[in-house]
Design goal:
This protein has two domains: 43 residues; 137 residues, no CATH class. It is of the alpha+beta class. β6 and β7 form a beta hairpin.
Length: 189
């Protein structure tokens, strides 16, 4: 950027403003006279880059025969937004005809997949997920509870009760509990 300033200051005609002319800078970049680094070319809105990321919280509970809580674990792990999930987010932002809402979570006993996957490897149970968002915040959650969980190792969030697009997925070590609550927190920042 210092080179551009020197160029404009040294080539300024008498009486011209010292202010840089944006179109001249763009013309110089287009002609290859000046190049921007990738760090200098990032698009920012109010000095913030748009990012989407999320976490999955697993809360496991076991109860004795009297219904008394015996064991609790609470784990947080990163999730993976799928290609179909990014398509879904883009369609919500750009289409007049909106895709169906995220309404369900599923657990399975297979290996967690990658970004190109559209289903869990081995789905065992699918439950309705409750959506929550507080206006003015940058986060939202989906929460679902699964009963009698046996060796669950993968999770996914979907926009349909039986098929639909998988927004995100995560894998974890095998979980067997009486009750498994899953809270997916998404953050737009």
């Amino acid at each position: 950027m210092k080179n551009i300033l020197k160029f404009f200051m040294s080539n300024k005609k008498k009486g011209e403003s010292k202010m840089l002319k944006p179109f001249k800078i763009c013309e110089m970049i287009a002609k290859g006279i000046y190049k921007l680094s990738s760090a200098g070319a990032k698009l920012r809105v109010r000095d913030e880059q748009l990012r989407v990321h999320g976490t999955v919280r697993l809360i496991g509970r076991n109860y004795d025969k009297n219904g008394v809580l015996r064991q609790v674990f609470d784990r947080k792990l990163a999730n993976l937004i799928t290609d179909a999930g990014f398509d879904l987010i883009s369609d919500v932002l750009g289409l007049n005809a909106q895709p169906s809402d995220i309404t369900h979570m599923a657990i399975g006993s297979g290996a967690a997949g990658g970004t190109g996957d559209t289903t869990l490897t081995s789905e065992d149970d699918r439950q309705t997920a409750a959506y929550a968002h507080t206006p003015g915040t940058k986060t939202f959650t989906f929460t679902a509870t699964f009963s009698s969980v046996v060796a669950a190792t993968e999770y996914g969030c979907f926009n349909d009760g039986s098929t639909g697009s998988m927004l995100n997925t995560a894998g974890f070590s095998a979980i067997t509990v009486d009750s498994l609550e899953i809270v997916m927190t998404g953050t737009l920042s």
